[in-house]
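Cross-check.
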Amino acid sequence: MADEQIRRLREELLGLDVDAVEFGPGPTPPEGAKGVDASTVTSLVVTLSSSPVLIILGRTLRDWVNRANGRSLIIRKDGRSLEITGARTRHDQEIIDAFMRDDQP
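Predicted model, tokenized:
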């Protein structure tokens, strides 16, 4: 299940104006593999060359979290991290936007 979800998220992120979306460190399981350790497939590395897409990326990730119960993710950027666990308020979105722009929330 985690494998399928992370692959769908990867495809959605590839639809944005990003340079690349790669699986994080560790072995990439074969497509459709069952019984895979979720920690090996739940990390994606997004490469960007344009900063305006950062806000769109943050909103896309927030929307992905909100589409299913129990989803969460951690964004790591420049030694900082932000956990998104179903941000639904305008203030929550402002915090995500500020993090993606490098403003201190």
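Residues 51-105 form one domain. The two ends are 33 Å apart (CA to CA). Passed to J.P. for a second look.
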